[in-house]
Amino acid sequence: MIESHKMFQLRAKGFMMGEKALCPVCQYEIDISANSCAHCGFKLVGATQEFSSPGTGGFAFNETAVCGKPHLTVTKGPIAGQVFYLEPLPISIGRDPECDLFLNNMTVSRLHAIIEKHGSKLYVRDGGSLNGTWVDGKVVEEADLVEGTLLQIGTFSMRFSCL
């Protein structure tokens, strides 16, 4: 059973629906007395850590894109609509809170991918992830990031732009 402080946390985050709750991973409706999500298996009991920001160390985050700066806009996932600026490079992406772009979801590996620059080109490199790094619908070890590239990491889809 979810303790009262956890029910408060779920309600405060918008995951409560009457006597039901939404799984924080897959958004499936669950009973508040459940120990895990019947849909994805996510365990709902135990200690939960809160993190105050999606990144660390000067990594820029905004909800509106600025033209001329390379950035990723989340198009699908729990943080859809958010914009992450890709500076300073390299940018580590993963579930580890120490990553520059912290994606807190079980479908994301601890160090899922890295965005780097060679010459004037930006590219993404898989960091040995379990679910793979997808670029424009294909699993890649490494791929160039060009205007409009769709990057998928776990349940997060992000559109690359530098306009």
What does this structure look like?
This protein is mainly beta and 163 residues long. The protein has 1 helix and 15 strands. 6% of the residues lie in helices and 35% in strands. The strands form 3 sheets. A 7-stranded antiparallel β-sheet has the order 4-6-5-15-14-11-12, with no helix packed on it. It has a 5-stranded mixed β-sheet with strand order 8-7-9-10-13, with no helix packed on it. Mean pLDDT is 78; it is low at 1-18 and 47-67.
SSE blueprint and pairings:
Layout (H helix, E strand, L loop, with lengths): L3 H9 L3 E2 L2 E3 L6 E3 L29 E2 L8 E6 L6 E3 L5 E4 L6 E2 L10 E6 L2 E6 L6 E3 L2 E3 L1 E4 L4 E4 L2 E6 L2
Q: Which structural traits does this protein have?
A:
163 residues, mainly beta, seven-stranded antiparallel sheet, five-stranded mixed sheet, disordered N terminus
Distance N to C terminus: 49 Å
Strand segment count:
15
- What characteristic shape results from the CA principal axes? elongated
Could you report the average pLDDT, rounded to the nearest whole number? Answer: 78
Radius of gyration: 17 Å
Short note summarizing the structure:
The chain has 163 residues and is mainly beta. The chain has 1 helix and 15 strands; from the N terminus they run H-E-E-E-E-E-E-E-E-E-E-E-E-E-E-E.
